[in-house]
Amino acid sequence: MTPELREIISRMRSEDWLGTYGTIEGFALTFRRIRNRRDFLKIFVGSEEDLTNNYHSTGKAFQAFYPETLEFARFQDPEI
Fold first, then answer.
1. Calpha distance 44→37 (Å, rounded)
2. Measured between alpha carbons, how far is residue 41 from residues 23, 24, 30, 32, 59 in Å?
3. Could you tell me the residue range of the domain that residue 42 belongs to?
């Protein structure tokens, strides 16, 4: 791993990025954090409202998408 990637992974662990993604409030925090990284990312601020308004349809889409993602990953690396 590059030093940059090691630093990012360290921050992901210490700030519990993946745990944060488990709630709408966590997504809102993430959207606020990324807006300062690049100008084009500012459009995501407030997107938690879209997630809330479309929670059920988004969940259904994820339920269809995730198994396909796992299948693809297993095809790429059978040990997954």
1. 12
2. 20, 18, 11, 9, 23
3. 3-76
CA distance 16 to 20: 6
Q: What is the pTM of this model?
A: 0.59
In 3D space, the residue among 12, 52, 9, 10 whose CA is nearest the CA of residue 28 turns out to be 52
Q: For 29-78, how does the pLDDT look when each residue is reduced to its tens digit (9 = 90+)?
A: 888 888 888 888 889 888 899 989 998 998 899 999 999 999 999 888 77
Residue 7 is encoded by which pair of tokens?
């630093």
DSSP codes of every residue in 46-69:
THHHHHHHTHHHHHHHHHHHHHHH
Length of the chain: 80
Count of domains for the chain: 1
Check residue 80 and give its pLDDT: 66
What is the token pair recorded at 47? 């997107």
Q: What are phi and psi of 38, to 5 degrees?
A: -145, 145
